[in-house]
Amino acid sequence: MKKFFILLVFMLTISGISESHSIAVNKYNPMGTIIEAKCICGFTNEMFLGGGKLSFQTYAAFPYYCKSCKSLFVENFLAENKSCKKCSSTDILPYYDDTLRSHASNKEIFGWNVDKFTLKLTDDKYLCPKCGEYSLIFTPVGYWD
């Protein structure tokens, strides 16, 4: 059984599994995605986005930018009251907001369906919370559940 599970996880990792349209589901596989945010200025942040098999109906983790303290943090997109984890400000934007990306590319690297809306990140360059330049890149580095 253990060998079967390891093989299944490997197959899911390399195949990308088919698109699904549940309440909140990763478009590429049934697990959440680990994303690394990295900028040329030295800023890095590893984030666990989406949700797991036990939480996907109530939890959809997605990166946000705080305009008050200029930080990047992860928040549950499905939560009613969202605020910055660092300063508690509600002046925040999700990283799918058009003002936070350079619009140089539209290749989707992360997608999480929430009802009829898709939370997505592309391989574009985004606003870095540390240096304030559009040089932050999101890269998928693994999966979580």
Give the SSE map.
Elements: H1 2-15, E1 24-26, E2 32-39, E3 44-49, E4 61-66, E5 71-76, E6 92-94, E7 108-114, E8 117-122, E9 126-127, E10 134-144
Antiparallel strand pairs: 1-7, 2-3, 2-10, 4-5, 4-6, 7-8, 9-10
What does this structure look like?
There is one protein chain. This protein has 145 residues and is mostly beta strands. It has one domain. Helix content is 10%, strand content 40%. The protein is built from 1 helix and 10 strands; from the N terminus they run H-E-E-E-E-E-E-E-E-E-E. It has one helix at 2-15; strands spanning 24-26, 32-39, 44-49, 61-66, 71-76, 92-94, 108-114, 117-122, 126-127, 134-144. The strands form 3 sheets. The protein has a 4-stranded antiparallel β-sheet, with no helix packed on it. Strand 4 (61-66) and strand 5 (71-76) form a beta hairpin. The longest helix is centred in the N-terminal third of the chain and has 14 residues, at 2-15. The protein starts with a helix and ends with a strand. Mean pLDDT is 81; it is low at 1-26.
